[in-house]
Structure formats: structure tokens, C-alpha cells
Specification:
The protein is an alpha/beta fold and about 725 residues long. The protein has 4 domains: about 210 residues, FAD/NAD(P)-binding domain (3-Layer(bba) Sandwich); about 180 residues, FAD/NAD(P)-binding domain (3-Layer(bba) Sandwich); about 140 residues, no CATH class; about 55 residues, no CATH class. Helix content is about 20%, strand content about 25%. A hairpin with a 5-residue loop joins β30 and β31. α5 runs parallel beside α6.
């Protein structure tokens, strides 16, 4: 039994799947049916996938989403992205050490005719925005094709085990992301007007307004009347020493391995970035039994929702605000991280350095829209819309709603009689995109009789499931929209605890004075395994931000269906602290935290390079030297250094180079952007001639599959 696989999880079902053998560097390893090469290697304890041909630097994964090329390996003699390629029985996988040799073959491949496919609307991306738009288009009778490069629909929803914020009526607030994905897929199944092609990568938009896609190894030209780009976002990187060491991952890569593949990609994790993505990923790590030794954020406070930070604080994760990462340390893999305080100009302050032992650094410093398809479609005159993160970075709840809006807008563009988009939809979309408001003093009720909820949220964010779920209508949000803080206005609470269970921020407790006013019962939510707490245990009661309030006895632990895989833990507490309790920490959790203590260490070996271009191993120093010499054209930087010339096509380094320009005092208006490649994704050239590279039989005509109206492979 591999220690790197997740065998139990408080939220996710862990099903046994058939295993088979494949080889890595000639030795036998085991994979599970349907998983990628990257997941199988991680499950076997392998994190170094090869070494770069330029300087021998170790290579591993970074994005796990096909956006970079750092995870390249040799599979059966061909270079492939380990994060996007399924492993199969008997596959021979080798590290990519140096440049790959051309395959030794003299066979003439079979060439098939290129099929073309006309459709009213083509949607690129099957995440929350694309799915929501497809549902609306299907209702309007628009012939729609949705393509996605994964084998499952849902996008990042299938990685989100937490409950969503937002409006319960508009975007399933209070429901877990993984379940929202299922709901949207089931709605889409009801439409005969929408077909779905999975394992299909959109390659480019061409000047004749056709879109080239690679569908399971078959090249197809799609001619849409309208294009909807719902491609989501790619993660930003950071420039620091050792930033490409195996063990430095984007948050999306971490969650993909953890929540999709059920592989434990770390034992001791450090997080860089205090936005919602980093805070949520840290919580997911803790649920999977991974120690989170710390989190640093360059801003004076975390930029994500306070309730997310509070959850980590109650679990003992130290947060270092006004701090940045200086280096990832280790000769071949991450062994430690060094951070330092920053001044008002974001410069590291000498003498504030701290180094912590860890094996993984999760980089969660923001997202950039995947908008190249939008820009190219506009350049060639193809009517195009964008939705979700491809249009504007926001929460998935907003992506769902903007997807619905774009679906109606496209239907109107195509002449369907669907009416105007309701004005309240636009208002809701803007509310769902709202940034966190100011933090106010927590409002603790004065009452000490009966039973009532206590709200431990003190920041305006778009959220109202507690209001929607109260069967007696006793909870309201202040003001006219979902940004207001919740308030209990009823006088006859039944103590059902549904508000406790539904809160996405775990920020509602229920205090019951009816049995013993001196020692009331307090119900708190818990999203960890039932083994961590039991009736009769003495646990530590915690305040909203993790302050220790004292020991309390567990009276009851239950898991009602409405709690949606969470526990409701009832403790008996002294009257003086009952309303202050926001969470609990069991003795087993305390032992785990002790193991994860972020003790500073010394004597580490820091990598000496801070890489900007991962593909070509171009350093920040090389690019700064060109900027200081007067270069303002990014194409010149590419020609001199090869930065942006690698396999990923500049997806990860372009914004880093622009950041270097800003740091050198050069305004972005003075910069000439890189000339984009006509193709946005790497593809074998034979595909354009009709050479089939997928696993489907070569004698199966692509046109036959393109005409299959009823193909649903979710």
C-alpha cells in the first residue's frame, strides 16, 4: 500500500480501482486505471521527472494542467506531458534527460482526410462558465459543441471539496464544488442541442474563422458561427531562487493531485500567497493529513476571505503577512523554504530571513486569463464572447453566472427569441465578483437564554446560504443584497443546526442554554474524519481567530444528511466562553500540529538561479541586463535569450518579463509584446496531414465521430 496515495478522506469517496504495471527507468511501478503518468509517478514517490538539457536542472511538474512543459517525460519513445497523458499497462516511461532523439521509424503513417464540422456555437472549456453557458444555449435550441481537453467535465469544480459562497438561488452556494459539477453535467445531459467532445484540445483560431481541435489524436476543423471562450485561467509564477525545483507547484497542480487523483503530493507544505486559492488549498491539505508548516503573504493582510484564514488559524497554521519567499532550497528537490519580511516598497528587509523545513512550496499568487483564443478570434473577425476567468478573474460562483449571461447573449446574437438578459442577472454577477469588504468587530449576541445561532463572520463577502436555509426565516443579511453580514432576528429557533452545516466558511455555531444556562451546549462544524473526535473526549475550544479558550467535553457527534459529509460536534462549555467558541481542536489534531511546527532551521543550500523562462532556463539577471541596455521589444529578448521560445510558448514567462520591466522603471506602454505563435498548444505536425496519433482505430473515420449527435462521455 503506497504511503503517497490517499486511502481515506473526510469528503471524497476513495474507491479501489484496478491497478496495472508500467515501468519507470526500467523498474516496475503500479498505476491505477484512468490516471495520468504524473499521478502514477507521484504515487510511486517520484517527483523528479528528468533534467534540463541546458544546465542539468531537475525537472518536475508545475501546473499539472498542460499550460507549461516542465513535466515532460519519454513515454514509449515519445516526449509527452506527464500531467496530460494517461498511463497504460506496460508503458515504458523514462526521464527526459537532455533533448529527446527523433524516433527511429521508417514506417509511412496512414493519412486520413481532415474532417470539418459546422456548428452555431463552439464553446472552448467545460468548467463552470462553459457548462452554464451550454445549458442556456441548449434551452434556446442553439446547436452547440463544447470541447474540453480533460476526460471529465467540470474544470476546477472537480477539485473543489469545499462549499461555495455566493447566492444559494443563483449559484448553489452552500454546495460543494464537486457536487455542483455533477448538477451542471446532469442539466446538460437533458439537452439534445449540445454535444460534448472530451479529451479534445483547441489548438488555434485561423484567419478563415475556423478553429482547429485535436480530438483524441484526430485533427478536426470546426467552423462556428459564434465562439465562446471559457478556458479559465493559468497560474502566475514568481521569480525567486530555486523557483523551478521539483516540489514548487502551483495551487491548481497541488489540488489536482490531491483531490482529483487522490495522491498525497507533500508531507510538509509551505504556502506562498494568502488569497482564496492559497487559503483553500491549505485547508484541503490539512483534510488529507498533510502538515502545513506556514503561509506567507506579501500584503499587510491576507487578501482572501477572512473566514478562510480563520479556518487555518484555528487549525494552528502560522501566517506571516508582509513576508515574501526568497528561495526554495535543495540540490534536487525542495528541502526547505526561506522567507523574509518586506518593507512598504515590497523589498525584502535584511535580517528578517526565516527558513523552514518542508518538501513542497505551493505558489498561489494569482491567476491570468487564458484569453489568447479571444484575442485571435477578434483579430480574424470571428464573433467571440468570453466568460468566467477567461474574461475576468473571480470566484467560480461568478463564472457560473457570467456563463448563463453569455449563453443568453449568444442565443440572441444567433436570432433566438430569448428576450433581454434580466437586469438583475447583471447585478447578481457584479455582486458575485465583489472583493472582500472591510473587517468589522464581531457581533456576539447578548442573549443567554433559549437557543440561537452565533455568526463568527465579520467581513462583507457575497454569501447568503444561512439565510436561505433557515426553515423559520429567522436569519437575514443586512442591506438589500448578499454582501451584508448575517443577523438572527427570529425568536423561536428550533435548534435544527442547518445554518451551522451549510456555512461555507464554517463560521456559524449554535448555542443552546435550554438544559443548563451555566454550561450551555455549543454545536460546531467539523470537516475532518470521524476518528478525530468522539463523545466523552475533552477538546480545546477555540475563538474565531484561533485563540485558545479552554478545554470542553464533547457531548455528541453526529453526521446528519443535511450536513453534507461534515460532522456536527456538540460540546458543553462554561457560560463565559460559550458564545466565543468558533471551533475545536482534538488531541489527535494537536499532535499533528506539533509534528508540523514550523521550526526555523539553518545551514541549508539555496539554489543560485531565479528562473524566468522555465522552458529555456533563462534567468532574471539575463533579462534585466537587456532591459538596462535599452531593449524594449520582447521579441528581441526572445531572440537573444530564447525566453518565450520554449514548448509552452511563453505562457508562464511573459508576465514575469513584464514584471521585470516594471521593476526596472519601464512603463508597459513602452514595451512591444511578443509575436504570438499561430498555435497555442503543442501538437505533432502530422496531425495537420491527417495522421492519427490517438488510441482509436485508424480505420474509424473522424467524420463519423464528428457526426455522432448523441455522444456523451462525461
Amino acid at each position: 500500500m503506497s504511503k503517497y496515495r490517499i486511502h481515506t478522506h473526510p469528503i471524497l469517496p476513495v474507491e479501489e480501482r484496478p491497478e496495472f504495471a508500467f515501468s519507470w527507468e526500467g523498474r516496475v511501478m503500479h498505476a491505477r486505471e484512468g490516471e495520468t503518468i504524473a499521478a502514477a509517478l507521484f504515487a510511486g514517490g517520484v517527483r523528479v521527472f528528468g533534467h534540463h538539457h541546458k544546465d542539468g536542472a531537475p525537472q518536475g511538474i508545475f501546473c499539472a494542467n498542460g499550460q507549461c512543459a516542465q513535466c515532460l517525460v519519454m513515454a514509449d519513445g515519445l516526449p509527452v506531458k506527464a500531467c496530460m497523458t494517461a498511463v497504460h499497462p506496460g508503458m515504458r516511461v523514462e526521464p527526459l534527460d537532455g533533448k529527446p532523439a527523433l524516433p527511429d521509424t521508417h514506417a509511412v503513417p496512414e493519412v486520413n482526410p481532415i474532417s470539418t464540422f459546422e456548428v452555431e456555437c463552439l464553446i472552448i472549456g467545460g468548467g463552470p462558465a462553459g457548462l452554464s453557458a451550454a445549458i442556456e444555449l441548449g434551452k434556446a435550441g442553439v446547436r452547440t459543441l463544447l470541447v474540453d481537453d480533460k476526460h471529465r467535465l467540470g474544470g476546477k469544480l472537480i477539485l473543489q471539496t469545499h462549499k461555495f459562497f455566493g447566492s444559494a438561488e443563483a449559484c448553489y452556494a452552500g454546495t460543494r464544488g464537486i457536487d455542483i459539477a455533477t448538477k451542471l453535467k446532469e442539466q446538460l445531459r437533458q439537452s439534445e442541442n449540445v454535444r460534448v467532445w472530451l479529451d479534445t484540445t483547441a489548438l488555434a483560431v485561423f484567419s478563415d474563422r475556423q478553429v482547429g481541435v485535436l480530438r483524441e489524436g484526430h485533427y478536426v476543423l470546426v467552423h462556428p458561427h459564434v465562439l465562446l471562450v471559457a478556458t479559465g485561467a493559468r497560474e502566475r509564477s514568481l521569480i525567486f531562487r530555486g523557483n523551478t525545483l521539483p516540489g514548487v507547484y502551483g495551487a491548481g497542480a497541488f489540488q489536482t493531485l490531491l483531490n482529483r487523483d487522490l495522491v498525497r503530493p507533500a508531507e510538509r507544505l509551505f504556502i506562498v500567497g494568502g488569497g482564496n486559492v492559497g487559503l483553500i488549498a491549505g485547508y484541503h491539505a490539512l483534510q488529507a493529513g498533510i502538515s502545513v508548516v506556514g503561509l506567507c503573504e506579501a500584503a499587510p493582510d491576507c487578501t482572501g476571505y477572512k473566514v478562510h484564514r480563520d479556518k487555518l488559524a484555528r487549525l494552528g497554521v502560522p501566517v506571516y503577512v508582509s513576508h515574501t519567499v526568497l528561495s526554495a532550497n535543495g540540490p534536487q528537490e525542495v528541502e526547505s523554504v526561506t522567507v523574509a519580511g518586506v518593507d512598504r516598497r515590497w523589498n525584502p528587509v535584511p535580517g528578517t530571513e526565516k527558513t523552514f523545513a518542508c518538501d513542497t512550496i505551493l505558489v498561489a499568487v494569482g491567476l491570468d486569463p487564458v484569453d489568447e483564443f479571444t484575442r485571435q478570434a477578434r483579430a480574424f473577425g470571428l464573433p467571440v464572447f468570453a466568460a468566467g476567468d477567461a474574461e475576468e478573474i473571480a470566484e467560480a460562483s461568478a463564472a457560473m453566472f457570467t456563463g448563463r449571461i453569455r449563453g443568453l447573449e449568444i442565443a440572441r446574437t444567433l436570432g433566438r427569441d430569448v428576450g433581454e438578459v434580466p437586469p438583475e442577472w447583471h447585478r447578481t454577477a457584479e455582486l458575485l465578483k465583489s472583493r472582500p469588504g472591510a473587517v468589522v468587530t464581531e457581533d456576539i449576541p447578548k442573549a443567554e437564554a433559549g437557543v440561537f445561532p452565533v455568526f463568527h463572520c465579520s467581513q462583507e463577502i457575497p454569501c447568503n446560504p444561512c439565510e436561505s436555509i433557515c426553515p423559520l426565516g429567522g436569519i437575514i443579511t443586512e442591506g438589500d443584497d448578499i454582501l451584508g453580514l448575517p443577523e438572527y432576528v427570529g425568536g423561536d429557533c428550533s435548534g435544527c443546526a442547518r445554518c451551522v452545516a451549510v456555512c461555507p466558511g464554517l463560521a456559524v455555531t449554535l448555542v443552546d442554554y435550554r438544559q443548563d444556562a451555566g454550561h450551555p451546549l455549543v454545536t460546531v462544524p467539523c470537516e475532518f474524519s470521524a476518528e478525530v473526535v468522539g463523545e466523552g473526549d475533552v477538546v480545546t475550544a477555540l475563538g474565531t481567530e484561533g485563540a485558545v479558550l479552554g478545554g470542553v467535553e464533547v457531548v455528541k457527534v453526529r453526521a446528519p444528511r443535511f450536513a453534507d459529509r461534515a460532522l456536527l460536534v456538540q460540546v458543553r462549555a462554561p457560560r463565559e466562553i460559550a458564545k466565543q467558541i468558533a471551533g475545536i481542536r482534538s488531541s489527535s489534531a494537536a499532535e499533528t500540529l506539533a509534528d508540523a511546527e514550523s521550526t526555523e532551521i539553518s545551514g541549508v543550500s539555496s539554489a543560485v538561479e531565479d528562473i524566468v523562462c522555465r522552458c529555456e532556463r533563462v534567468t532574471a539577471g539575463e533579462i534585466r541586463a537587456l532591459i538596462r541596455s535599452g531593449v524594449r521589444d520582447m521579441n528581441t529578448i526572445k531572440a537573444v535569450t530564447r525566453a518565450g521560445m520554449g514548448a509552452c510558448g511563453g505562457k508562464t514567462c511573459t508576465n514575469l518579463i513584464k514584471r521585470l520591466f516594471r521593476e526596472e522603471g519601464v512603463a508597459l506602454e513602452e514595451i512591444t509584446d511578443n509575436t504570438q505563435r499561430p498555435l497555442f498548444v503543442e501538437v505533432e505536425l502530422g496531425a495537420f496531414a491527417g495522421v492519427v496519433t490517438g488510441e482509436r482505430p485508424a480505420d474509424e473515420p473522424p467524420a463519423a465521430r464528428a457526426a455522432d449527435v448523441h455522444e456523451w462521455s462525461m
